[in-house]
Amino acid sequence: MEAFISLDQDKASPISERWVHSLIIKVIGKSFSVEFLKTSLQRIWKLQQPLQLIALGRGFYNVSVPSEEAREAILSNGPWFITGYMLIVQPWVPGFKPSQAVISKSLVWVSLPELPIEFHSLPILQRIANEIGSFIKTYMNAIEQNKVRFARIQVLLDLAKQRKENVCLRAFKHTIQYEEFP
């Protein structure tokens, strides 16, 4: 037996209106107190006005930001990190349920074994990373440590897309190895 309550659009719109400009967030791999999250978000998003943070369950939070401009800036300027842990940020959608949420992006380290020494430069590694996903960071100290067995790059990977197995530089084909692929 189920109860069904119908809501016409004219009744549904007012109850959603408060949340239309809010965000849904989740810190991947770590949980923090609400107060620590609020303070951290204020700082990294450089907000002058306070934000409202509501726990939704399963590590998800609804964040009401002070303006539509702030919301758009937050959505377009990521990825965001709190103490090294990635913050998933997405627009609020009506009917959001944490138990049914799908995380479509993840931070992944990739290795390029035997990448020739001439390709161990930040611009080249960024270009490679952006072909795989979105460049986040790399360690450029391999040459200083006399270790160029492989290049290691962190990328933001869209899990909905097919992952690339190889990358071609000039006439050379290089294998991409994914570490801890989600």
Outline the structure in words.
This is DUF4283 domain-containing protein. It comes from Spinacia oleracea. Residues 16-100 form the DUF4283 domain. The chain is 22% helix and 34% strand. With 182 residues, it is α+β, with helices and mostly antiparallel strands. The chain has 2 domains: 21-92, Alpha-Beta Plaits (2-Layer Sandwich); 105-179. A hairpin with a 2-residue loop joins strand 4 (80-82) and strand 5 (85-91).
Short description:
It comes from Spinacia oleracea (Spinach). This protein is 22% helix and 34% strand. It has helices at residues 9-17, 34-44, 68-76, 122-132; strands at 22-27, 52-57, 60-64, 80-82, 85-91, 105-113, 134-138, 150-158, 166-169, 172-175, 177-179.
List keywords for this structure.
182 residues; alpha+beta; Alpha-Beta Plaits; five-stranded antiparallel beta sheet; four-stranded antiparallel beta sheet; 34% strand; elongated
